[in-house]
Amino acid sequence: MTCNLSHYIIGIDGGGSGCRAALSDSDGVRIGEATGGAANFTTNPELAIKSVLEAAQEAAKSADIELDTLSHCVAHVGLAGILNASGAARMAAALPFRQVNVTDDRPTSTVGALGTEDGLLAAIGTGAFVAIQKNGAARFFGGWGFQISDHGSGAWLGRAAMERCLNVCDGLEPGSVLSNQVLTEFHNDPVEMVSFAKAAAPSDFAALAPMVIKAGAKSDALGRSIMTEGARFINSCIGKADLGESDIVCLTGGIGPHYAPYLDDRAKSLVRPAKGTALDGALMLAKAASENMECAG
Fold first, then answer.
1. Host domain of residue 255
2. Pairing between strand 74-79 and 119-124?
């Protein structure tokens, strides 16, 4: 059966550091792109709505189409901080599109990385989550925020390094090159570390993660121990995935690829580059929604 797709499709990916919008025609050819401001819905819903709208409008301008054309678009918006149906509905109601699906950023990241293939995505940056995709359905692990989740994330690595360095100060474990580097950042003063931790955001802790990664790669005992513990979460998820020989494993984000040496042996052989980004995933999901809508009609 031949279906008439909506003329334009738009995908939007957003989080605390900003959002991106991409506009394509019905054949999937990308014709416009733009960036916008911060769009973490939990942190600031009003700003997230404003940033998404502005990014969509700028994408339309970059494609040299009229802004009112957005009302004919089918869209998928994947945003950090969309935690429930009411948040998704509030965001959707504020947007001008013909049809829009609003989700958190996990589905868009998963589809962007894996495409339609079965496999596992470990998306590890300042935060972290793992997704297992089988037969077009995804199951998610983690991603509940730094305070109670995000094991292995950049923020987690930084905090773990500080905790272990305090153990060094207390004489509970031996020091290393890594502990010397981290303690130097705080003038070898545990009180300064405590003061920092009281006010630090996840991104502040994550600023220490490159030290940990580099130390682990150089076989620093402390760095390797922390990286191994960070990988334990990913490996636990791999154990739940029942990966087949044709499945793929993608490690994305600023931290994810650095966990490759710490994966279980079988998973190492399945590691492949991500097919695309969360923005690509948003466009793919928008195109699928357009096809389903038009075919159903």
1. 117-273
2. unpaired
